[in-house]
Amino acid sequence: MVADYAKNGGTVILCGLADYQDSNDGAPYCSTEQINPILEAMGATMRLNDDEVLDDDVDYNGGESQTYRVYMDNFNTKSGDSFITSLFDGMQEGQRYSAYSGASIDLGESGVALVRGSENCYSINSKVRPEEAKGTWDSGKPQGSTASGSYDEDTAVVPKGDVVTLATEQVGEGRVYLAGTVFLSNFEIADSASVDYGDASYANKVILENI
Fold this sequence. Notes:
With 211 residues, the protein is an alpha+beta fold. The chain has 4 helices and 12 strands.
């Protein structure tokens, strides 16, 4: 039903979460096992990764104890596709995208990145599930650490500088947006007088309104 809706011109937004928040029971009670089959049914090539996005740079996280509270300002504003650039209309200089406790995205063959992490942004497997609870998209990586400065190429699911947290892909006559976080939550799109971005506290709201 969702696939038919998208292929016939509908807009679909799918939001994932970091793997540590998924049920200890594992598959099928985890984001990848719920979302990726929908993407597959729609004919989309993008997939949600079974991981947790971190950033070691204090300028892009919530502090050394909150490396999973990630802020991003690497937007696809120079795309040659006017539709893609229109998603950032109204964004103000210095405005950032909030990606709290999220997963990363595999763009597949035809997904287009909208928001990327900084050069110090990467992802880890934060929950190693027992064999019987592992899903189709389990990374197979050893468990990584969320501690600041603990980056290890051997445990990284997505290496530093390669993280995508929000992407889009055309499916038939419609379009799907895939986010590694619930980027449209009340918190993420709330107005805030504490941040001088005018109407919106984060870029999340600007992008959502343009969608």
